[in-house]
Amino acid sequence: MSSDTSLPHGTSPHGTSPRSASGDGFPARGSASHRPSLAEALSTGAVVLDGGMSNQLESAGHDLSDELWSARLLAERPEAITEAHLAYFEAGANVAITSSYQATFEGFAKRGIDRQEAARLLTLSVELAQEAARQARDKGVRQPLWVAASMGPYGAMLADGSEYRGRYGLTVDELERFHRPRLEVLAAAGPDVLALETVPDAEEAEALLRAVRGLGVPAWLSYSIAGDRTRAGQPLEEAFAPAAEADAVIAVGVNCCAPEDVEGAVATAARVTGKPVVVYPNSGEAWDAEARAWNGRSTFAPEQVLAWRDSGARLIGGCCRVGPDAVASIARTLSAS
Predict the structure, then answer these.
(1) pTM of the model
(2) 257 has binding-site annotation
(3) Bridge partners of 251?
(4) Mean residue pLDDT across the chain
(5) Is Magnesium among this UniProt entry's keywords (predicted)?
(6) Residue closest to 256 by CA, chosen among 10, 27, 2
(7) With 0-12 CB in 10 A as exposed, 13-18 as middle and 19+ as buried, what is 33?
């Protein structure tokens, strides 16, 4: 993920707006042609997401064999995270998903990091993506750029695989209390959107939808699925339905799933919610937890994104094992059609 996972799994966004006098890469905000909000961009066409944060960091030589996964680098090598975001922006991504997927107060506490420092690191995750956007503009990247603050499920903090099962034995109220403080910190950091991602269970989605109310930052809700059901086994029709009435939610969809499961899920999400759909599947390779290695071959093909777009997907990218080259192919495929 940008989310870190362990199972298989306008606004033309590539327009060439002239650089503004302020050097930020976009027309001045006071003009009628200022950079649109992400919601506005989704209403006019497809927007390109980045790919897997963890595999981009690993390919740069960073060891992520840790319960905090890429979130560990927030404290130890923050510049590496900026470099990873920058690689995706330069590949053609419009949206960077922050490295906060497994960054929680509870997870940091296990490492002796107190609450104040944990809040600083959560804020830093947004600032690093924003810095990557500034660097990208300085290097001549012309497409509109946005930052999505990643919010992983409760199970990501446990680091025991339960993020792909759900059913943690907690109530919706307990899950809301777990998620809300982290969401408040991330929202205060000023991202363009909150990415409620890799959600395995409709009950946790209900908690997250409650937790984002009143924060003043839009969100997308993205389930991890197997076939036509959530990882916890709920039919997608039921799982997507609450998002239809959630004013804060600007897109709903799936991520961290097999590419072949995407098209049906996109159609269901669009039909049930009437909202733009977000999709970013894995490469199709499978994770061997004992060997801690990926097996099999990639089934992710950039041309698949056209079918997803035609079914209603408007926010399109990749998750685990989908790197900058694949994101560049997605961007080219969408802009050429």
Answers:
(1) 0.87
(2) no
(3) 220
(4) 86
(5) no
(6) 2
(7) middle
- The owner of tokens 């409760």 is 154
Range scoring the smallest mean pLDDT among 69-83, 84-98, 177-191? 69-83
With a cut of 60, say whether residue 15 has pLDDT above it: no
Q: Please state, in angstroms and rounded to a whole number, the distance separating the CA atoms of residues 311 and 289.
A: 34
Q: How far is residue 81 from each of residues 55, 68, 77, 206, 311, measured CA to CA in Å?
A: 12, 14, 7, 31, 33
**Binding site annotation covers 320?**
yes
Helix (H, G, I), strand (E, B) or coil at 53: helix
Cβ-Cβ contacts under 8 Å for 310 (sequence gap 6 or more): none
Q: pLDDT per residue over 250-291, tens digit each? A: 999 999 999 999 999 999 999 999 999 999 999 877 766 556
298 confidence band (pLDDT: 50, 70, 90): confident
Distance CA 253, CA 250 (A): 11
- Within 69-227, residue ranges assigned H as helices are 72-76, 78-91, 105-109, 115-138, 154-158, 172-188, 202-211
Residue with tokens 């690993």: 58
308 touches 263 (CB < 8 A): yes
Coil, strand or helix: which one is 244? helix
- CA dist., res. 54 & res. 37, Å (int): 27
For the chain, report the end-to-end CA distance as a whole number of angstroms. 27
Instruction: State pLDDT tens for residues 132-187.
Output: 999 999 999 999 999 999 999 999 888 777 777 888 999 999 999 999 999 999 99
Three-state SS for 286? strand
Query: Mind listing the pLDDT tens digit for each residue in 39-62?
Result: 999 999 999 999 998 777 777 666
Smallest Cα–Cα separation from 154: which of 232, 214, 50, 251? Answer: 232
Consult the annotation and say whether 256 binds a ligand. yes
- Only one residue has tokens 């989704």, namely 42
